[in-house]
Amino acid sequence: MGYLLGIMTLICCNIIVVIGLSLLTGFTGIFSFGHAAYMAIGAYSAAILTTKLGVPFVLALIVAVMIAALAGRLIGIPTLKLVGDYFAIAMLGLGETVRLLLDNGGKLTGGARGFGNIPGKTAFPIAFVIMVFSVIVMRNIIGSRYGRCFLAIREDELAAECCGIDTYGLKKTSLTISAAFGGLGGALFAHYITYIQPIMFDMAKSTEIAAAVVFGGLGSLSGSIIASIILIGIPEVLRPLYQWRLVFYGLLLVGTIVLRPQGLMGGREFTIQGLKNAAQWVQEKIPGRGKGEKR
Amino acid sequence: MSILKIEGLTKVFGGLTAVSNLNISIPQGRIYGLIGPNGAGKTTVFNMITGIYQPTRGIVEAEGKSLAGLKPNQIAQAGVARTFQNLRLFKKLTALENIIIAGQYNTKYNLVTAVLQNRAFKEEEKRLRQEALQLLDLVGLSEYAEYKASNLPYGHQRRLEIARALALKPKILLLDEPAAGMNPEESLALMGFIRDIKDKFGLTILLIEHHMEIVMGICEHIVVLNFGVEIAHGSPEEIQNNSEVITAYLGEVEKDDAAS
After folding, report:
1. Interface contact A145-B115, CB threshold 8 A
2. Does domain B2-259 have CATH number 3.40.50.280?
């Protein structure tokens, strides 16, 4: 039971990070392969605050989110002037830079040996409540004029600019929010796992976050959530297969790219009505049942 | 008094002068045409007016205010809206969302109220939606409100792009080849549509067009560009009979050919 709760806590932390990147990549159309950096910034900031300075957990979370958001904002100022792939490459560089800085942080970060003795404050109920809260906040942002501006930028940046949208400013907003979510997920993660190491936030982690966004479908919040659950859950379910589980993980990703390049949800959101429609569609396909019979 | 004034407008790309010393002055409520062969610099003029390119020299004034140094989004908010030669709709979004996006530039709520979804937020959203629906109704697209922009018939997409520009509540509308890819009947309908919106919204229009029946049909004044230089301007009749314009479009008539 403890094991299962642990996996579910981990999934909650990851959902927060992935929906953060989903806003930037799925809704604003800006790819980033260094998003683990914001997670690392959040994780280390919160860990230093609670472990070394004795700051209460909740306050540490808030401060960590603000530090991650500020980092996103500052990094966005020069890099968001870059167009397309160049931004993704700059973020790749950022991810490595942050990891190396933490590696060489001396006593403050514990260097490559890691940072231990973090209080295990992230119990499953806390992680779950914060995750649900994060999802609601994100949903509201996406449903507002900000969300529409992000979508407009994704669809056609020049046209968005000519529709009165300050695209550079809003791209910075998108990155800031995205980084804040990354920081929150990282801070929760640090207080669940109680021991963090720079290598946990390397390029592989960034790729994993980006893969979840693409796998879930660009421009679908529910897709990102479902993908996070599957991508964290599957390797755990397959644990009895030892090394073979990574093969299945790879097959799952390749299969998605080949069979469903638009991602699980393909830009749509998961709704009860959508579920009903899907059920109806399945019924019609089954011979001898539903409306399909009449033809 | 002219509502849109262009003086000595010049754009140099490296060694190429795309537009050279152009002067246009459009009085309030008129429809002006900008024509010329391919590559004459017409779209470059639009890009300079809307701030996408910075002019090398010259000034652009809208309603007596200089647009120099303003970014495209600021110019759009200052009352100069445009459409594009190759449609630039937000393809995966619905027709309604396309309009709302352009109409929301002065929305009165911030990120915090958007997250809290308080009453001010809900009222603003409702207003945006209603305004957009009204506009769709005015351009005859209300039944397509929930269609994805890319799924609309081509002519309707053109109309939607104009409607999106109108959502910015502009004083000046720049149309870049609004009839591109349209058949004669659609072009004719478009002509009526442009006249219609001009009167309803009190617009001043500058349009680029290759369909001569449209240009001659609705423009009160025409400016002809060739290789970035203005070669003629005047009423449609004057332009039709201008030998230099005919040469630019059809080429020189060789004496031998004329004889044979």
Report:
1. no
2. no
